[in-house]
Each structure stands twice: as C-alpha cells, then as structure tokens.
ADF-H domain-containing protein (Gossypium raimondii), 139 residues
Amino acid sequence: MANAASGMAVHDDCKLKFLELKTKRTHRFIVFKIEEKQKQVIVEKLGEPTESYEDFTKCLPADECRYAVYDFDFLTAENVPKSRIFFIAWSPDTSRIRSKMIYASSKDRFKRELDGIQVELQATDPTEMGLDVFKSRAN
C-alpha cells in the first residue's frame, strides 16, 4: 500500500517491531529509514531495552533524515514510573532537500501505521529532542 503523496510503502517489519516495542518492550527504540530505490520505509536499527537515550541519539545520522520511535521511561510528580512512546521526525538542516521532502510527505501515513504513538517531535538538530524536551512533553 503506497502513499499517494510520496509513493512510499511501509515494510511489514516496521509494524511488527513497533508492536514488539509497544506490547513486549523488547526494544528501547527503533530507527526507520526510507529506502528510496525500493520506495518503502524499513527498520534500520533496533535498540536493546538496556540501551540509553545517548545510544539512541548516536544512531541518528547528522546529515540524513530518519523516523524514530523511542520508549521513554519517566517518573511522575507523584513518583509513579510511567512510559510514553515518542515518534521523532528527524530532519537535520544539513540533509538533502529531496530527502526532507520525501520524509515530510510520507510522515503522516507512516505514523498512522504505528498505532500507539503518544507524543510526536519534529527535530532538525539534537537540541530539539534533548532529554529535557522529552521530560516536558511526557507529562
């Protein structure tokens, strides 16, 4: 099922791995990449449950767009442990214009395929998705 706007299909593995993250918590994060030649979104990297936020940010290329999902654990003001599933549209200023356009036009449809996203972030540099941003958006 290709997206009418950009023609990008979503590989079944994307939905499967997201479901694992959401229900079984077998992954801390997932980085998705658009494979332009195959015209589809694929899983590029899976983060182990033990991996940190820093491990996650290192997986995002400095000059290429990506989609990512991050399972963010935090404590509420009442000291109750909770988690939120963040969807990050990573689009650095240094990435190619064509790439930015493809990612932007495919984002909404791709996000709809991942049922259970709670917070969305758009980031063009690491400061826009720092831990402080996650904490402020999680509550």
